[in-house]
Specification:
This protein is α/β, with parallel strands linked by helices and 370 residues long. The chain has eleven helices and ten strands. The protein is globular and about 55 Å long. Bound molecules: flavin mononucleotide.
Length: 370
């Protein structure tokens, strides 16, 4: 097989953070709502298998909710608990492994992103550190400590199941203003106990989740932690305004047992702080010394929110800059979202230099599990 010379860096093996991968391409977690009653079926398995067959080194699944009555914010999102859903996931793992791929579930609690309107039949009210939605308005009571401990246990149980049914790693969803990020963010966390306070205080919930997950999976099973500065209601939001603040934020998470950080940004080329062109994954790698995954508009000409705000797909774009940054070791792994939705063979085509065959991403791609 001839490697496209420019893409070589993407196809180097990776060995770090307890994880060995055949290359640097990661499928980004993407919610697809194709799992009726929370059970991922044969179509979901085939969808992930197609990406594994086509040279994706690591697949991170769509967000899959932990065993708590208010964890989901949408119907048809897969569960990561219960015999039937876990059997479905076991089948997904088998299919991906049969195609030579590796896979991690993204475990998720949506916090107050859940709304009563969406679940009128359910008595499970949304939960959050202070019972506030993303605008800071009250929608329920603040979580009690007992409830917090129960939710932490549910994350640990999910991670333990991930390991038991054969996944290669687990990703904890700490980004995008869902439950863990609601603890990080001052707008949604007004607690005055040990789970609130300054940014370091607000990492405590995540730290306890990571510690519980580590205890559940043992020292060698890879834990990936995804976080973001941006929030769906405020793209310019920042948890950390300076490298020092970012260091203070990441250190407790790193010490709690994260193996690989996944820094979620919308455009990988944007510098995170003035005075350096490092992006968020670059800074995270530099400050923690841990491997990192970057993400955001790789291979596409517009960011993923344009799909919602302008109803737009995206055209393909060159991959020169992502390769250059990878060659400089700014980060270790590159997650690809919509480009892999639009074209299951994106990674194989990049590897083989068949760039003229790349399919563009359109909104219609969201309507099927192709
Ligand atoms: C349809 C769709 C669903 C998504 N669902 C999730 C999700 O469940 N969990 C998550 O962390 N990010 C989710 N994201 C964000 C992606 O993982 C990724 O960070 C984002 O799309 C930027 O990458 P891209 O520009 O390559 O698409 C989703 C994105 C899209 C387009």
């Amino acid at each position: 097989m001839t490697l496209s010379k420019t893409a070589d860096a993407l196809f180097q093996p990776f060995n770090g953070g307890n994880l060995e991968l055949s290359n640097r391409i990661v499928m980004a977690p993407m919610t697809r709502t194709f799992s009726p009653k929370g059970v991922p079926g044969a179509e979901v398995a085939a969808y992930y298998r197609r990406r594994a067959e086509n040279a994706v080194g690591l697949i991170i699944t769509e967000g899959t909710v932990i065993n708590h009555p208010a964890a989901a914010s949408d119907h048809n999102v897969p569960h990561f608990y219960g015999e039937e859903a876990l059997k479905g996931w076991e089948h997904v793992v088998r299919e991906v492994h049969a195609a030579g791929g590796k896979i991690a579930p993204q475990i998720w609690h949506t916090g107050t992103a859940r709304t009563r309107e969406k679940f009128p039949e359910s008595d499970a009210a949304p939960v959050g550190p202070s019972g506030l939605n993303l605008m800071g308005q009250p929608v329920s009571e603040p979580l009690t400590k007992e409830e917090i401990h129960g939710i932490i246990q549910a994350y640990a149980d999910a991670a333990s199941d991930a390991k038991r049914i054969g996944f290669d790693a687990v990703e904890i969803h700490g980004a995008h203003a869902y439950l863990i990020d609601q603890f990080f963010w001052g707008v949604t966390n007004k607690r005055t106990d040990e789970y609130g306070g300054d940014l370091v205080g607000r990492t405590r919930f995540a730290v306890e989740v990571i510690e519980a997950v580590r205890k559940a999976v043992g020292p060698e099973f890879p834990i990936i932690f995804r976080f973001s500065q941006w929030k769906p209601v405020d793209y310019s939001a920042k948890l950390a305004h300076t490298p020092e603040e970012l260091k203070n934020f990441l250190e407790p998470l790193s010490a709690a047992g994260v193996d690989i950080f996944h820094a979620s940004t919308r455009r990988f080329w944007e510098p995170e702080f003035e005075g350096s062109d490092l992006n968020l994954a670059g800074w995270t790698r530099k400050l923690t010394g841990k491997p990192t995954i970057t993400v955001g508009s790789v291979g596409l000409d517009s960011d993923f929110m344009s799909m919602f705000t302008e109803g737009k797909g995206s055209q393909t774009a060159g991959i020169g800059e992502i390769i250059e940054r990878l060659e400089r070791n700014e980060f270790d792994l590159v997650a690809v979202g919509r480009a892999l939705l639009g074209d299951p063979a994106w990674a194989a085509k990049i590897r083989d230099g068949r760039t003229e065959e790349l399919e563009v991403f359109t909104r219609e791609a969201l309507g099927t599990l192709s």
